[in-house]
Amino acid sequence: MHLPRSHAVERLKPGEYLWAPEIAPAGPVLLVVSLATQRAVLYRNGVPIGISTVSTGRKGHVTPTGIFTVLEKRAEHYSNIYDNAPMPYMHRLTWGGVALHGGHLPGYPDSHGCIRLPTAFAKHLFGATRLGMTVVVTADRYLPRLAPRISGTVWGTDDAMEHPYSWHPDRSPEGPVAIVVSGADRRVVVLRNGREIGSAPVALEAPAVGTVAYLLQSIDEHGHHWSMLSFGSGEESGMGASELFRRYKVDSEFGRAVSSIVAPGTTLVVTADTLRIGGADALVAGE
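The structure corresponding to this sequence follows.
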């Protein structure tokens, strides 16, 4: 079974969704939300297993874009800001009031900043996710496209990096790992279970263009095996992992530290955007 292609997805009516978890019964999970199309796609092991209509923030309460992690999950939750409004199957993205949850979908952005989902889809999502899952909210109309399985190391190393790095794995001893590289900030941030445990400057051999996400599927004697999801039509979208990773170099000691904690399920997101806007609060909310 395969999920329909884009033209069928575009014809989904408000409140409708597609759910086919049997396509990829196990593996790392990543959710992508497009404000432009009012759609969300859930990927597991690099394969779309769920597509849904959404309703995001209305004018004056626009849903922030950026790279988030799920900080809290509650099957039954009520808003402490908006008249105790029900927020079933809630996934918190920031401590400032932005979350995924079931709710009314009128066919256009209508929330106070949250991402409303059909309640039935929100229930499916709740059962398929865990704390620390990466959520990408984009203003672009493009949604990730599946690419063939690719291989590569986490990144190159450079012993001549000038600035010190931060590494505190004890802040969150276990949980899913997400690595975010910002071309604009020339910095990498490492999150585990939604908490920042490390960061370091990154030397770029060429400017970052667009956004690309890698999901680590397995590690064996041949190295790390990733599946790639690209966003839009940036230069990175056509690159293999090895070529892309060679563009981003970090202190060798920091690189070894990160390599020691990555495991199948790790998400690596490389973006040209800054982490200081949009999703920045989500990245450091656990501090």
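The longest strand covers residues 211-220.
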